[in-house]
Amino acid sequence: MLIYMLATAMTVAMLIATVFGLHQEAGRVRAKANAKRFEGFGIRKPYRHF
């Protein structure tokens, strides 16, 4: 019985660690995309619509 409780606890711990890691990675990707989108305060060419 004890081994099943330990296995369950480890499974839950690994699931929590996975969710936390995915959350951090998503934040890192989001920050990288936002940094790439910002081009500074320079002169911008207007968009042309054809």
Mean pLDDT: 83
Which percent range describes the beta-strand content?
under 5%
Q: What is the structural class?
A: mainly alpha
First-residue to last-residue Cα separation: 71 Å
The SSE string, one letter per element, is H
Helix percentage range = over 70%
Q: Count the beta strands.
A: 0
Give the overall shape: rod-shaped
Annotation field: number of helices: 1
Uncertain segments are none
**How would you sum up the major sheet?**
none
CA gyration radius, whole angstroms: 22 Å
Q: In words, what does this structure look like?
A:
This protein is mainly α. It has one helix and no strands. The longest helix has 36 residues. It is rod-shaped and about 70 Å long. The termini are far apart.
Topology diagram in text:
Elements: H1 2-37
Core attributes:
mainly alpha; 50 residues; single chain
Put the structure in a nutshell.
The protein is an all-alpha fold. It has one helix and no strands.
